[in-house]
């Protein structure tokens, strides 16, 4: 009978195409209790997957040549190429290139002031009193429209720019956190840019808390920066 | 003279005169009253029918509000008490000093009258003024019977009908107004005294200026300042897009990118390259369908102010003044209404018929009667008090001055447009897929102009005709290029936009919005500047340094407090407005509304006092040092 580690590795690879690193998996198994070890494999796989999606892929995945980006991926001389196989990546940055940076800054500042705009009406979003506690915060309700430009990173740390060529559900500022995980299947790369389409991208979700926090804290400043550069 | 003695009181002298004319059929004696040259007593006989029968009537009027709510005289001096005391200080309602003659007239007439019929305007303020008149009458004649005439224009048949179907005063509406008056007085006086005493000494330009605060004024100013800051702080950005042109049958068809433009040059270049690589574009959709441009909805006050100031080159306050006078003279219906649906009972064709004599639109009206008439669209608002604004009768243009002509013409054209058919056309949409990108072109042919012929304010024009395309066919575009551009700052706020914002955010009522705008002009919080010239000139609202300092100062004062309270944003005022409606509906008492609102504002007042340093710093920065925003 195969040991637990092999079983989990196989499960994660088969169901999610994630080649988990033995060191990370060992670490994972050492953090869970004996009682949890005895739960059925599918349940344990779920726990491992949850941790994996919130980990840094550079630490949690092995870098096999078939599951990482080619080194010369960002070569802008290549007009078009198709990557074979399934490549897990994490999102390092996401930008809405369909909306001006300035109007994004204005939107951020409205949220900071506790307002949202509904048509011509300015709506208050902070909770006043106890009766509207279940109102959801505005940030989630106002996801960006896109298309989006993302920076993706594979298990080995190679970075590449991706452009959302067709609307991908779940890929938006406010919906997707930094460190969220994607699977790329047979994507096309043009001039060093990955063309993201619903057919070639699976959104797995997740986030890397530290990266996400830093990204949020710096977002307004980066948008300002972008304006002064153009 | 025979019969029961009846006293009728209208809100304005002109209404009293018009109603008296209709009821008396012209057999009327006009009498001056002591101490007021505008108010007259009209004495005539009239049969009110039912229990009243033949009556001897005195018709008179007030001039707006009769009484005033005040603090006792020991509070008159601004330094007589800490401003915060004004939240609790006693208040009393008394006849306004310059209205004493009018009140005396009502009392002396009421003394030996059997009944008092109230003819004030049928809105909240009117109900309240009605109670003011009633209180005067009851002081001298406790048993006088009080009734209310319900009317919304001064057309003869309508007035006669109102006189014979009298109703009751609406106490709830009057209560809501009473609550608002008390809140305005206490909150306004407390904040105004605090601000003026603390801030006036900071700069010579403020000498003698009252730094007033009003719960509607401030959010109104807030909108103007907010837009001003957005314009001033705006940073332009470059964008790029793809345009595709195809020549077929000698027609140059411009296809527009479905993404419009993007803010990433590299991405756009890559996308264009992929279009060019594909060489051919494929037609994915060809949609030919009848299309129409809808005739406008029946006219409300807010729409009259917005459209009016957009198309007639008059400001909202002037439009309302003119509309008021057109109403008083019986030419149009009551101009303060939220209703955008006509009641089924109203005979619209008869109203259309009245316009037949007109040189400009008489023929169009004839066309409606000859079969083009359509039942107007119904909007979603109905204030249950007044119909949409419409012409009551035709007026010869030589009886109107230039401004009156413009407003009357607008009301008539709008009304006729409502009763017309939508404009009809045929649109063609062609969508193509080119590389990974989607482009589309649209053609429009206007087939029937219908309402557009009379409603000259709307534009809908045919475009260039498209050559024919088949779904599935492929072609090589003649040109595909990248274009670039820059984002531009929003424009400063215009009055119609401001009215729209106030309406959407519940600041003021349709009746008072333009008054609030005028108020912040006279307080030197905002100014009006012209952009462009001639017919295309646009009047823009720009805050003064004082206006900016007040709003930014208040924002600083409340910054970081829990629940982000704000005096420059519309939330608080909107809350009060909603609660006033609850008072009108009887689901909240006047006392409850007053107490709760005062508690809220009192808390904000204490914060303002405590953090006055921040307010002063804002004045220092924006007024004394004239710093950039």
UniProtKB/TrEMBL annotation, chain A:
It comes from the Eukaryota. Residues 12-60 form the RMI1 N-terminal domain. InterPro entries: RMI1_N (IPR049363), RMI1_N_C_sf (IPR042470), RMI1_OB (IPR013894). Residues 69-219 form the RecQ mediated genome instability protein 1 OB-fold domain. Residues 128-147 are annotated as: Disordered. Transmembrane segments: none annotated. SMART domains: DUF1767 (SM01161). Belongs to the RMI1 family. This is RecQ-mediated genome instability protein 1. It comes from Aspergillus pseudoustus.
TrEMBL record, chain B:
Its EC number is 5.6.2.1. SMART domains: TOP1Ac, TOP1Bc, TOPRIM. Keywords: DNA-binding, Isomerase, Topoisomerase. InterPro entries: Topo_IA (IPR000380), Topo_IA_2 (IPR003601), Topo_IA_AS (IPR023406), Topo_IA_cen (IPR013497), Topo_IA_cen_sub1 (IPR013824), Topo_IA_cen_sub2 (IPR013825), Topo_IA_cen_sub3 (IPR013826), Topo_IA_core_domain (IPR023405). Residues 5-152 form the Toprim domain. It holds the Pfam family Toprim. PROSITE patterns: TOPO_IA_1 (PS00396), TOPO_IA_2 (PS52039), TOPRIM (PS50880). Residues 170-605 form the Topo IA-type catalytic domain. It catalyses: ATP-independent breakage of single-stranded DNA, followed by passage and rejoining. It comes from the Eukaryota. Belongs to the type IA topoisomerase family. Introduces a single-strand break via transesterification at a target site in duplex DNA. Releases the supercoiling and torsional tension of DNA introduced during the DNA replication and transcription by transiently cleaving and rejoining one strand of the DNA duplex. The scissile phosphodiester is attacked by the catalytic tyrosine of the enzyme, resulting in the formation of a DNA-(5'-phosphotyrosyl)-enzyme intermediate and the expulsion of a 3'-OH DNA strand. PANTHER family: DNA TOPOISOMERASE 3-ALPHA, PROKARYOTIC DNA TOPOISOMERASE. This is DNA topoisomerase.
């Amino acid at each position: 009978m195969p040991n637990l580690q092999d079983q989990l590795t196989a499960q994660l690879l088969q169901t999610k195409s994630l080649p988990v690193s033995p060191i990370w998996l060992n670490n994972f198994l050492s953090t869970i209790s004996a009682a949890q070890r005895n739960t059925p494999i599918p349940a344990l796989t779920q726990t491992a997957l949850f941790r994996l999606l919130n980990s840094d892929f550079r630490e949690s995945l092995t870098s096999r040549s078939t599951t990482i980006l080619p080194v010369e991926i960002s070569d802008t001389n290549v007009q078009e190429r198709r990557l074979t196989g399934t490549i897990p990546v994490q999102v390092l940055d996401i930008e809405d290139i369909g909306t001006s940076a300035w109007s994004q800054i204005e939107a951020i500042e409205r949220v900071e002031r506790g307002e949202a705009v509904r048509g011509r009406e300015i709506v208050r979003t902070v909770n006043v009193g106890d009766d509207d506690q279940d109102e959801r915060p505005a940030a989630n309700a106002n996801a960006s429209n896109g298309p989006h430009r993302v920076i993706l990173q594979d298990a080995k740390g190679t970075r590449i720019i991706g452009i959302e060529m067709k609307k991908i559900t779940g890929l938006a500022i406010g919906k997707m956190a930094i460190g969220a995980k994607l699977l790329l299947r047979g994507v096309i790369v043009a001039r060093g840019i990955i063309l993201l389409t619903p057919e070639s991208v699976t959104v797995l979700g997740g986030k890397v808390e530290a990266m996400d926090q830093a990204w949020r804290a710096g977002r307004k400043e980066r948008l300002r920066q972008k304006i002064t550069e153009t | 003279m025979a019969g029961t003695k009846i006293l009728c009181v209208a809100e304005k002298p002109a209404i009293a005169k018009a109603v008296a004319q209709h009821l008396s059929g012209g057999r009327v004696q006009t009498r001056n009253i002591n101490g007021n040259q505008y108010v007259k007593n009209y004495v005539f006989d009239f049969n009110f029918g039912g229990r009243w029968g033949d009556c001897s009537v005195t018709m008179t009027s007030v001039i707006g509000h009769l009484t005033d709510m005040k603090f006792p005289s020991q509070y008159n001096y601004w330094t007589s008490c800490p401003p915060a005391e004004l939240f609790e200080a006693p208040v009393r309602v008394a006849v306004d000093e310059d209205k004493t003659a009018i009140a005396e007239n009502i009392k002396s007439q009421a003394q030996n009258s059997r009944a008092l019929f109230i003819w004030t305007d049928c809105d909240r303020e009117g109900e309240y003024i009605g109670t003011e008149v009633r209180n005067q009458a009851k002081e001298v004649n406790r048993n006088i019977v009080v009734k209310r005439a319900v009317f919304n224009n001064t057309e003869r048949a309508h007035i006669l009908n109102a006189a014979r179907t009298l109703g009751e005063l609406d106490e709830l509406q009057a209560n809501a107004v009473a609550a608002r008056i008390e809140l305005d007085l206490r909150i306004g006086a407390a904040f105004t005294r605090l601000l003026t005493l603390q801030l006036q000494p900071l700069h010579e330009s403020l000498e003698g200026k009252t730094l007033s605060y009003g719960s509607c004024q401030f959010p109104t100013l807030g909108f103007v300042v907010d837009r001003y800051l957005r314009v001033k702080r705006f940073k332009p950005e470059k964008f790029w897009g793809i345009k595709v042109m195809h020549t077929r049958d000698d027609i140059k068809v411009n296809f527009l990118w479905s993404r419009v433009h993007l803010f990433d040059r590299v991405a756009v270049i890559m996308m264009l390259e992929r279009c060019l690589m594909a060489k051919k574009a494929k037609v994915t959709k060809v949609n030919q369908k009848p299309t129409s441009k809808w005739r406008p909805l029946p006219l409300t006050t807010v729409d009259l102010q917005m459209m009016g100031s957009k198309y007639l080159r008059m400001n909202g306050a002037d439009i309302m003044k003119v509309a008021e006078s057109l109403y008083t003279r019986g030419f149009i219906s009551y101009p303060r209404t939220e209703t955008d649906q006509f009641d089924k009972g109203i005979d619209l064709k008869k109203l259309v018929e009245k316009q037949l004599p007109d040189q400009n639109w008489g023929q169009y009206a004839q066309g409606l009667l000859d079969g083009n008439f359509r039942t107007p669209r119904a909007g979603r608002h109905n204030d249950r008090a007044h119909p949409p604004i419409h012409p009551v009768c035709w007026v010869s243009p030589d009886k109107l001055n230039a401004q009156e002509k413009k407003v009357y013409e607008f009301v008539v054209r709008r009304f006729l447009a409502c009763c017309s058919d939508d404009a009809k056309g045929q649109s063609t949409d062609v969508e193509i897929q080119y590389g990974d990108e989607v482009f589309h072109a649209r053609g429009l042919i206007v087939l029937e102009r219908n309402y557009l012929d009379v409603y000259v304010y709307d534009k809908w024009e045919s475009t260039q005709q498209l050559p024919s395309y088949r779904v599935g066919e492929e072609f090589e575009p003649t040109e595909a290029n990248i274009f670039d551009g820059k984002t531009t700052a929003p424009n400063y706020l215009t009055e119609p936009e401001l009215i729209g914002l106030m309406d959407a955010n519940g600041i003021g009522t349709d009746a008072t919005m333009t008054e609030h705008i005028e108020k912040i002009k006279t307080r030197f919080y905002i100014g009006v500047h012209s952009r462009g010239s001639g017919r295309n000139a646009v009047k823009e609202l720009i805050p003064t340094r004082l206006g900016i300092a007040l709003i930014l100062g208040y924002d600083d004062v409340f910054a970081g407090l829990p629940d982000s309270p704000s005096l420059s944003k519309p939330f608080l005022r909107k809350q009060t407005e909603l609660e006033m409606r609850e008072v009108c509906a009887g689901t909240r008492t006047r006392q409850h509304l007053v107490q709760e609102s005062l508690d809220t504002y009192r808390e904000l007042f204490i914060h303002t006092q405590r953090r006055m340093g921040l307010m002063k710093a804002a004045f220092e920065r924006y007024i004394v040092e004239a710093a950039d925003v």
